[in-house]
Amino acid sequence: MRVITAIGAIFAGIEVLYMIMVLAGANAGNAFFVFIKSLAVPLALFFPGLFPVDNPSLAVILDFGLAAVFWLVITGIIARFAG
Question: How many CA atoms lie within 13 A of 37 on its CB side?
Fold first, then answer.
């Protein structure tokens, strides 16, 4: 159960880290940024573009923030039923 919860926390952490890096204006050519992006974008699943907004900062928060919450909720539910 703790393993499932930890996996959800790691996935959510990747989403939040990517969100912070984008909002802070990190160098998109940096290897670490590219690595985190390569993990965060697939983990965001169907959330990017789900809510079309004009503000790019709000779009990043919605797209990746909702994905982070999703991973925490889903893995929490799975862990509860597994235990």
Answer: 12
C-alpha pair distances (Å), 1 with each of 7, 16, 45: 10, 23, 23
Res 65: pLDDT: 95
Q: Name, in order, each residue with C-beta under 8 angstroms of 14's C-beta and a sequence gap of 6 or more.
A: 36, 39, 40, 43
Predicted TM-score of the model (pTM): 0.91
Q: Which residues contact 41 (CB under 8 A, 6 or more apart)?
A: 18, 48
The CA distance from 68 to 16, in Å, is 7
Instruction: Say which residues have a Cβ less than 8 Å from residue 7's Cβ, sequence separation at least 6.
Output: 75
